[in-house]
Amino acid sequence: MSRIQNAFSRLKAEGRQALIPYITAGDPTPAATVGLMHALVQGGADIIELGVPFTDPSADGPVIQRAAERALAHGTSLRKVIAMVAEFRQTNVETPVVLMGYANPVEAMGYEAFAAAAQAAGIDGLLTVDLPPEEASERVAVLKRFGIAPIFLLAPTTPASRAQAVAKLADGYVYYVSLKGVTGAANLDVANVAAKLTELRQHIQLPIGVGFGIRDAESARAVAAVADAVVIGSRIVQEVENGETGLAERLTNFLSGVRAAMDTARA
Amino acid sequence: MLEYVKQMAENMSYNFPDQSGHYGQFGGIYVAETLIPALDELRLEYEKAMQDPDFLAEFHHELKHYVGRPSPLYHARRWSELLGGAQIYLKREDLNHTGAHKVNNTIGQALLARRMGKKRVIAETGAGQHGVASATVAARYGLECVVYMGSEDVARQAPNVFRMKLLGATVVPVSSGSKTLKDAMNEAMRDWVTNVDSTYYIIGTCAGPHPYPQLVRDFQSVIGEECKVQCAEQLGRQPDAVVACVGGGSNAIGIFYPYIDVPGVRLIGVEAGGDGVETGRHAAPLTTHARPGVLHGQRVNLMQDENGQIIDTHSISAGLDYPGVGPEHCYLNEIKRAEYVAANDDEALAAFHDLCRYEGIIPALESSHALAHACKMAPTMSRDQIIVVNLSGRGDKDIPTIARLDGIEL
Fold it and tell me: Under 8 Å CB-to-CB from B268, ≥6 apart: which residues?
C-alpha cells in the first residue's frame, strides 16, 4: 500500500479526516522548508502539499503568488524541491508528500526524469493545476509506473461525465475545489460543497479532499463533516508571510487548533 | 461570410486543429478544471454559430458598416522605389475602426458572448489595441467590460488607456510578474475562473486554450481572404511573399491562413528581436528555437529557463512582448510552411520613420517589425516581385514612445 493509501485507511479506522496543509517550497527561504514541513507534521498534518513555485501562477490568488515570487527569488527549482523532500524523508518516512504546481516545470524536466527522481526522493503524488484529464493520459501513465499518484482537481462546474473521466485516471485522492475562484478566496459555502460531494461520490471511489476558502478551525470543522480531507493553503502561507520569527511554532499551533476542531466534526 | 472558412476547411489538405484542439504537438487545453466546462460550452456555441446564417450575416454586416471593411490593399510605391527591389503592398488594417486588426476578432467574440447570454466581458491587452477593440464592442453591444493591462504597459500606452476609459471600460493595472502582457493574461484568467458564469473572456490573439486559437484565426481570416481577392483584381496574381508581425500572432494567422494551401506564396512571420536575439533581450521564441512548454492553456514554443520558469521578454512594442506564440504558428514553423524571423527594436524604428516620411502613414510599432523585414527582403528581390505586408495597426498610440526616444516632451 502507498503512503497515501496508508494514511487514509488509518484515518478511516479512527473515524477521522485528513488534514492537508500547503506551503510553497522555498518560501520564505529554501533552507527553511524542511523544518516547516516537520512543524506541519507536529501540528497534525496527515499529508503535506508542497507547492512548486512557477512564474505564472494563473490559478492562484495574491498570497500564493507572492509566495512563489519569494521562492523564485531564492532560486527554488523543481529539482531543488525534490531534494528538499529527500531531506525531509531522512527523518520522516510516513507522512505522504504531494507536489502541487503547474505543468511547465515538470514538462521542462520531462515526465520520465521527474517521476524517477520523485520516486527516489520519496514523493507520493503530483497535482498539476493546469493538466486536466484531456491532456493527462500519457503523462499519468508515466507517473503511475513510478508509483507517483496523479492527483486531479474537481470543481463546482464539473459535470458527472467528467468526474467519471477523472476517476479513471486519478489515484491517491481527488481534490475538490470548493468554489469558483483562485486560491485564497473567501466565499466558501459548505452546504453547496456537501451537495456536490454527494453527487461526485457516485463516480469517485477515492477519498475526496476539499480546498479553497478554508481559513480557520471553524471552516475546517465544517468541511471535515462532509469531506475525507481538508486542505488549507493561503491561510498558512499568510502565516509564513508574517515573518520568520517563531514561524515553525506558529504553524504547529495553528494546525493543532484546526486538528482539534476537525476531530469534533463527526463526534 | 465565414463561408470561406468552412469551404477552406473542406477543401484544404491542411486541416487543423484536430478534434482535441491540437496542431500536431502544439495547442491543447491546459487549464484548471473549473474552466473546462466553460471552454466546452464556448466550443459548442462557436460550432453552432458557424452554422447559423443569421450569426454570419450579422458578423459580415458589422465588419462592413462598423469596421469599414474591406480594408484597402495599397501599393507603397515611393517606399518600394527607395528600396529598389520588390514592390511592397500594404494590407491596410490600420484603417479599420479602432485602428488595428483586433476589432475583427472582438466583434466575432462579442457576438458569441451575446449569444451565450453573458453580460460581462473581460480582456487582456499589451499595447492596448485589443483592450480598445474590446471596450469598443462592449459599448456597441451594451456589455460591461474590464480590461487587464500590465502596469508597465499602462505607463507606455497612456493614450490607449484613456481611450478605453472613454469607451466605458474599467482598466485594471497588473503589477505582478513582469508587469506586461503575460501577467495581464494571468490576471484575466483569475477573473474568469472567479466569474465564469457571468463572464465571457475575449482573448485577443490566436493563443490560449482550445478553441480560442481556432476562433480567433477564423474571425481574423477575413484579412487574408480579402487580400487574395484584391491581389487577383489589382495585380492579376498572388504575391511572392506575405509578411506579418508575430507576438501571439493573430494578424499574421489572419493573413496567412487563406494562403496555406496556395503554392508559391512565402509566409513570413516577424517576431520582436528587441535588443537583438543574441542578447537574450527579445520576444522571439520561434526565431530562437525555444523549447515547447505549457503556458496560458496551450503547449507552444516558449521562452523559458532550464527549470521551466518563464523568462521576461523585451520589445519596444508592448503588443509583441509575449514569451510564447500561438500554437498554429508553432505548427506552421515545424512543418516549414511559414518562416519566422526577428526584427530588432532599432530596425523597427527605422521602418516606422520610413513609412511616415515616404508614404504618409504612421504605422504601429508592432507592424513596423513586419515593415522592417520587408525592408531587408525587398532589395534582394526583382522589381516585378511582390511582397504584401500586413499593416496590422496605426501608430497614433506609439507617438508618446517615439517622442520620448527622440528626447521630445509632448
Answer: B241, B242, B243, B244, B338, B339, B340, B341, B373, B377
